[in-house]
């Protein structure tokens, strides 16, 4: 077998296993990002309806926070969808964030039914798991912490 035949065989084998990006996965990526933004903006704007749209009724959220970078972490703090919706208006009123407050969504992994997402917000970094149920992407799990030492707070 010549090198040319081996290379051609490898290319054919790789193309058999390559799954092209489809319009559906692009639509899913947009829906995943929209759910993550609803999550962030639900707190920033104090709008429980955004959280209602983004969060699964079975949401499990926990995290650790601290006020000063040299202070000890407090927590874990736990939240459900209902407690998140109750918390959001007070958070928004206390923080009074500008419209351009830091927000970043990064899809770490996306399959047809599940996704793993990292978000950055003024409060810190959240990792979330989402699932597509009945055609809608919902956040099921969130684990978070405030900005760690050595990382500029946004």
List the helices and strands and how they pair.
Blueprint: H1 3-17, H2 23-44, H3 48-54, E1 55-65, E2 74-79, H4 81-95, E3 103-110, E4 114-121, E5 124-133, E6 136-145
Parallel strand pairs: 1-6
Antiparallel strand pairs: 1-2, 3-4, 4-5, 5-6
Distance between the termini: 58 Å
The main sheet comes to: 6 strands, mixed
Number of strands: 6
- Name the beta content range: 25-35%
CATH topology: Nuclear Transport Factor 2, Chain: A
Please state how the strands of the largest beta sheet are arranged side by side.
2-1-6-5-4-3
Q: What global shape is seen? A: globular
- Level-2 CATH architecture: Roll
Total domain count: 1
Radius of gyration computed on alpha carbons: 20 Å
Return the average pLDDT rounded to an integer.
88
- Poorly predicted sequence stretches spanning 5 or more consecutive residues: 14-21
CATH top level is Alpha Beta
- Spell out the helices and strands N to C: HHHEEHEEEE
Q: Which percent bin holds the helix content?
A: 25-40%
Count of helix runs? 4
Category from helices, strands and their pairing? alpha+beta
């Amino acid at each position: 077998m010549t090198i040319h035949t081996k290379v051609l065989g490898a290319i054919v084998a790789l193309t058999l296993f390559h799954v092209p990006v489809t319009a559906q996965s692009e639509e899913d990526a947009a829906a995943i990002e929209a759910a993550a933004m609803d999550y962030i903006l639900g707190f920033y704007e104090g709008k429980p309806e955004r959280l209602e749209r983004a969060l699964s009724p079975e949401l499990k959220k926990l995290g650790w926070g601290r006020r000063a970078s040299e202070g000890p972490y407090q927590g874990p703090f736990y939240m459900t969808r209902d407690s998140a919706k109750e918390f959001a208006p007070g958070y928004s009123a206390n923080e009074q964030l500008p419209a351009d407050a830091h927000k970043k969504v990064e899809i770490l992994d996306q399959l047809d039914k599940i996704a793993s997402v990292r978000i950055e917000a003024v409060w810190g970094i959240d990792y979330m798991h989402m699932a597509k149920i009945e055609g809608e992407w919902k956040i099921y799990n969130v684990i978070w912490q405030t900005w760690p030492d050595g990382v500029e707070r946004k």
